Amino acid sequence: MRIENHPILEFKRKKIIKFTFNGQEVEGYEGETIAAALHAAGVKVLGKSLFSNRPRGFFCAIGNCSSCFMVVNGVPNIKTCVTDLKEGMIVETQEGKGVIK
Amino acid sequence: MKEADLVVIGGGPAGLCAAISAAKSGSKVLIIERNKDFGGQLVKQTHMFFGSEKQYASTRGIDIKEILVNELKMLYENVKVMMDSTVVGMYEDGVITILHKEDNYFKIKPKAIVVATGAFEKYLAFPNNDLPGIYGAGAVQTLMNVYGVKPGKKVLMVGAGNIGLIVSYQLMQAGVEVVAILDAAPKIGGYLVHASKIRRMGVPILTSHTVKEAIGKDCLEKVIVCKVNDKFEQISDTEKEFNVDVMCISVGLTPLNELLSMRGCEMKYVPQLSGSVPVRNDNYETSIENVFVAGDACGIEEASSAMVEGYLAGLCAAAKIGHKSNDYEVKRAEFEKQLYNLRSGPVGQKILIGIEQIVNR
After folding, report:
1. How far apart are CA B2 and CA B100, in angstroms?
2. What tens digit of pLDDT does each residue of B201-255 get?
3. CA-to-CA distance for A95 and A51, rounded, in angstroms?
4. Three-class SS of residue B349?
5. Which of B147, B177, B248, B259 to mutate to test the interface with A (most CBs of A within 10 A)?
6. Cβ atoms of B39 and B330 closer than 8 Å
7. For chain B, which has fewer Cβ within 10 Å, the N-terminal or C-terminal residue?
8. Contact A58/B139, CB-based, under 8 Å?
9. Starting at the edge strand that comes first in sequence, how are the strands of the sheet with A75-79 ordered?
10. Is there a contact between A2 and B134 if contact means CB atoms under 8 Å apart?
11. pTM listed for this prediction
């Protein structure tokens, strides 16, 4: 769900970036964060909570609240709301606190 | 270890202005910003600012950011910037530690520091308040106005202060339906000019209402709201349901200043300033010598006053470390006057009562 017409802003979308979310190919744009691209693709659940396994989405979108943690290229606890999308990124839902390999 | 004259932590409205003011005074300034761009929350403010011309009234926030960044560029001889860098520690010996791009960790020992770290959104307690689809007002703004992504199809806005009203309007500009705006207070908190505009567009503003419960399996599907009495207690049998996929929480901000607590600055909880804030003097210097503060980090206000506080803190911090500008007194008086004018309304009165509690004269 992207905004196409806006009375004030003009969104110049840059290069298309391909990445995977839980194994499925998703497209976003260069300059976007992982969370913004996922949201545009309709993905709101980014992880599961630490103890009660409740769905987690982002809340603040400026890197403060830690609600958007995901596993990116095998690394857990990545703040996806402030991390730029890169070609070929492997993005996965994070369950619990994640494991450092 | 790197050395610096003055380090400004945060490149939002307060930090940018602190850096501009200090650099103009002749101090060498290093701005440390955790994002990849300056401006803080200005980057998503598509509305025109209030205040007076001196704080860029009638200019959109997104454009104010460009004005300030350009001004900073003119001062390049005195200014260095470090983007994508998060200050993670401030220590007793004056050292600060920085994490650059998540993998390079290093130390700096500046002569003085201006902490302009801004604020964080407050939250509201209700069952299932953690469901995806429930976002802070700032998050919705970021998604819409920075990335051009709609937060969802139908939005319930919680909070009828200026942010709640403005973001509701911005949602409509983005083509998203706003079903209603709630506020637990009996009166609308924001400017009536904003509220009227939104009401004319057909969005009801329900005062004395709160969120009773959020419902949804994986994401938000429905919100149940109810009326509250004058003690903010929920009144039974007054429930209404809204089928929405987004709830936007806009119940205020709280200062983000853990670094000051960590450094050992004396802090005080001041409700009028929306949280725990540092005790300071008239020069914006905290209880720790050469540690200054400006903007929302020392009390929640508008971006306009954050900018003026930044100018003041930058001016005073530079003077403290030996770069007192020739027109120091004139500039100081001018900035004080601007703040006085900005705080002349009823909201300003509340702020002044708050400031009275933290300023040692």
Report:
1. 14
2. 999 999 999 999 999 999 999 999 999 999 999 999 999 999 999 999 999 999 9
3. 10
4. helix
5. B147
6. no
7. C
8. yes
9. A24-29, A16-21, A90-92, A69-72, A75-79
10. no
11. 0.92
